[in-house]
Write a structure and sequence with these properties.
- This protein is mainly β.
- It has helices spanning about 55-65, 110-115, and strands at about 5-10, 20-30, 35, 70-75, 95-100, 105-110, 120-130, 135-145.
- The protein has a single domain (about 5-145), classed as Immunoglobulin-like (Sandwich).
- The chain is built from two helices and eight strands, in the order E-E-E-H-E-E-E-H-E-E.
- Strand 7 (about 120-130) and strand 8 form a beta hairpin.
Length: about 140
């Protein structure tokens, strides 16, 4: 069995495709404590005048350094182009998260900031999270509000 599992959850009550978010929940399924890449990439410096959320900043940093990859495919099987959001920042990596058996953490991923989604459209979202030591991959079908 893989030491980590990941699932994608869609929080209820969302009404705007541009602000559509999913939760990536990563759980330690192994029988021991494991060290996992810490997703804390800090916050944007005030001088950046960052126009998006802190979740968008975190997601953008994780993607730009190869710690998170996302693909979104529509109902016809066409992969949607990812809209680049540049942070122009280099993160300081935090110590890895020590996760005991059954423990989990979650990342809020604002995919509506990175992909043009159609209201009511159903999409296959694939995400891979981690570093060279340990990665986890998940796929889920989601419907945009």
């Amino acid at each position: 069995m893989a030491p980590l599992t990941a699932i994608v959850e869609v929080p209820a009550g969302q009404t705007d495709t541009a602000e559509f978010r999913v939760i990536l929940r990563i759980t330690n399924q192994s029988g021991s404590t494991i060290a996992v890449l810490n997703p804390d990439m800090g916050i944007p410096a005030p001088a950046m005048k960052w126009p998006w959320s802190s979740e968008t900043y975190q997601t953008s940093i994780l993607m730009s350094f190869g710690y998170l990859s996302i693909s979104v495919t529509d109902e016809t099987g066409k992969e949607l182009p990812q809209q680049a959001i540049q942070t122009w920042a280099t993160p300081v990596l935090q110590p890895k998260i020590e996760m005991g058996q059954g423990e989990s953490f979650e990342l809020t991923i604002p995919i509506g900031n990175f992909y043009q989604l159609a209201s009511g459209g159903t999409y296959l979202v694939a995400m891979e999270y981690g570093d060279q030591d340990l990665k986890v991959l998940t796929r889920a079908s989601v419907t945009a509000p």
